Amino acid sequence: MEPPSTPFALVLTTAGTEEEAQRIARALVEDRLAACVNVAPKITSVYRWKGTLLTETEWLLLIKTRRALFSRVQEAVRRLHSYELPELLLVPVEGGEENYLKWLAEGTAPKDA
Q: Is the pTM of this model over 0.90?
């Protein structure tokens, strides 16, 4: 049996320094745009940028949020990020542990709710 779709999503982005990753993560959680942000240290990214092949150390942010908040998450990341073009990918959550999803809903509810 297929798990039901949920209103939640995982948003992926990277940052060039641990300090930047932590600043973005804290801002998203403080503003209730994310219930949790995992910061995975020192990943290696290989990519092409403006015709040049690059290999860089980055910090991966796994942002747990609601799909409906994606545009606000995107806006906040762009504002806080040093990259000209930060990665912003939305991955829909198609299922999950019921109590965790309830916690995620509480963590992304408006402050006055």
A: yes
